[in-house]
Specification:
The complex is a heterodimer of chains A (187) and B (388). Chain A has helices at 20-34, 124-131, 138-148, 154-164, 167-185, and strands at 7-15, 38-43, 53-61, 76-79, 99-103, 118-122. Chain A has a single domain (7-185), classed as 3-Layer(aba) Sandwich (Pyruvate-ferredoxin Oxidoreductase, domain 3), CATH 3.40.920.10. Chain A has a six-stranded mixed beta sheet, covered by helices on one side. Chain A has 187 residues and is of the alpha/beta class. The radius of gyration of chain A is 15 Å and the shape is globular. The radius of gyration of chain B is 21 Å and the shape is globular. Chain B is 40% helix and 19% strand. Chain B contains 13 helices and 15 strands. In chain B, helix 3 runs parallel beside helix 5 (89-97), helix 7 (140-155) crosses helix 9 (214-246) and helix 10 (273-285) packs across helix 13. Classes of the chains: A alpha/beta (187), B alpha/beta (388). At the A-B interface, helix 1 and strand 2 of A face strand 1, strand 8 and helix 10 of B. Strand 2 of chain A pairs antiparallel with strand 8 of chain B, so a sheet runs across the interface.
Chain lengths: 187, 388
Amino acid sequence: MNQTGHMEEVRWHGRGGQGAVLGASILGSAAALYEGKYAVSFPTFGAERRGAPVQAFTRIADHVIRSRSQIYHPTKLIVLDDTLFDVVNITDGVPAGASLLVNTRKSASELSVPDYLNVVTLDASAIARDIIGVAIVNTTMLGALAATTTLVSLDSIKKAIADALPQKVAERNMAAAEAAYERVRGK
Amino acid sequence: MSIKKYITANEAVAHAARLARVEVVAAYPVTPQTTIVEKISGFIASGEMDAEFIKVESEHSALTACMGARMAGVRSFTSTSSQGLEYMHEMLAYASGGRYPLVLVDVTRSVALPWSIWGDHQDAIQQRDTGWIQIFTETGQEAMDMVLQAYRIAEDRRILLPVMVCLDGFIQSHTEELVDIPDQGTVDSYLPPYEPVVTLDVDNPYSISIGGFGRYYAAWRKEQQEAMDRARQVIVEAGDDFARIFGRHYGGLIEQYRCEGAEAIILTMGAFTGTAREVVDEMRADGKAVGLIKVRAYRPFPVRELRQALSRAKAAAVLDRDCSWGCEGALATDLKAALYSLPSPPTVLNFVGGLGGSDVPPEQMKYMLDKALSVERGAPSTMEFIGL
C-alpha cells in the first residue's frame, strides 16, 4: 500500500494564548471532515506559556498521512503576530514557492521575507477586535487562508469553527473568518 | 452507524472505555495522559457513560480501586504515564499475580531525572517484568481499537491477565487525526458483558490475597507464564475477530511491511512506525531491499514470528525509545534472544533514539537502514545513540 502524492504541511507561528494550536486543529478538521481529505494536526512539543513564541502544525493530503515526525519544510506558514519576525527564524526550512500569510499592518514589501516566498498580509487583529471583540486571530486567519488556497473552502472552515466553539462565540468567529475572506479576495 | 471524528488518540481511547461499558474509572492526573480521564469524566457527567469515577490520591490507589471493581464484578479502566506508572509499579505485579483481567492505557513518557514531560518508551519498558501483556499502537484509531480488543484478551478464560495498551505521548496523545468511532451495538456484538470468574460476596467471605510459598508459589507463577504463552494465540484471535466485524486489521503480534526479499529490516514500536513506512517506501523506490517490522506485542514477546520474519534478512536495525542502562535498548536484547537459535541469524544493530520527546525524522531512519544494508550477516552487533 504505497501512499504517495502531494501533501501540504502548514506551520503556524503565534504567541501562547493567540490560538495557534486551535487554529491548526480547526484547519485539520475542516479538511478531514468537510473536504474529504486526510489531515493531522499537533502542537509544538516544547514548553508553552502565554506570550512565548509557539508553533503548531497541520498536515493535509488526499491520502492517509503516515508520517509522525515533525515538520521541517512547511509549504505554508501562518503567522499570527508580526513581532515574531524579530524573535524567531520564521522562514526556517521553508522551500521556494511556499506561501506565507501574515497578520500585520505592514505591506508584504515592508516585511523582511525572502522574495522566493508568496506573501499575503492582512490586519487580522483589527478584524478580530471589531467582530469578535478580542484580538484572537486564528479563525480570522483561517478565513484569509481559504481566500488564498484551494486547500479548504470558507464553508468548510466555518463548519469546523462551529464544531470547535460554543455557538455564540462560533458565530462571531465565523463572521470574522468571512470578513477576512472578503478582504483578501478584494485585494 | 460508526461516525468519523477528528480527535486525538487520548480522546479516542476515552470513547473506547465508554463503548466497552466500563463501570468504574479510577485515575490520577499526569501529563500526557490527563485528557483521557477528563474526557471520560465528561462522558459520565453528561450521562453518555454509566460509570463511577473514583477520585484517588495516587496511581497506586487508582489501580487498587480498579482491582476492587473487578472483584465486585464490573469492568474497570485506568490510564497513566511515566511517574504515575512508576508509582503504580507495586500494584502492577499484584494485579498480574492475582490474575485480574484489567485494562490500563499507558500514554508513554520519559521518566525523571532529568525531568521531562515528553515522550519515549522508558516508562512502559520499565514495567516489562510485572506480568502484564503490553501492546504498542501506532495511531489514534489503533489505540482505540486495541483498548476494545484488550478487554477481550484480558477477560478470556484462557488468559485472565491484565493488559497495558501503550500509545505514544504527544505523537499520539496530542495529535488529532480522523478516527472512526463504532456504534454501541456493534461493539456489544464484539465485546459481550463481563462475566467474572469469582466475585466478592459479603455473605460468603473468603480471602483473595493469596499466600504461596516455595513450590506452590513457583507452580502459580508457571501458570502465569503459560497464560502469557497462550496469549500469543488469543491476541491474534481477538484481532482477527475484530477485523471481521470492524474491517480493520493490525497484523497480530507483529506487522510485516514490505519484508519480501528485504536484506535489511527496521524494527519499531509505536507511532514512529508511520514515519518508517514512508522511509521504506522511498528506499524501495530507489531499489533498496528494505522492509519494516512493527512490533505490536512486546509481552508476550513474538519470538516465533520474529524468527520467521527475519530468517532471510542479513541485518535488523532496531529503534529503541528506551534503554536498559548498562546493557542496550530492550527490544534489541529481546530480539537477539529470539534469533539466537537460527542457524545464521541476522546482525542486530541497535539505535537508541527519540528519547525525552526528541524527534526521529526520516533521515535518521534512512541512516539506520543504510547502515544495516552495509553490514555483512554475522558482523558484530552494535549499539549507538542517534540524533545527538
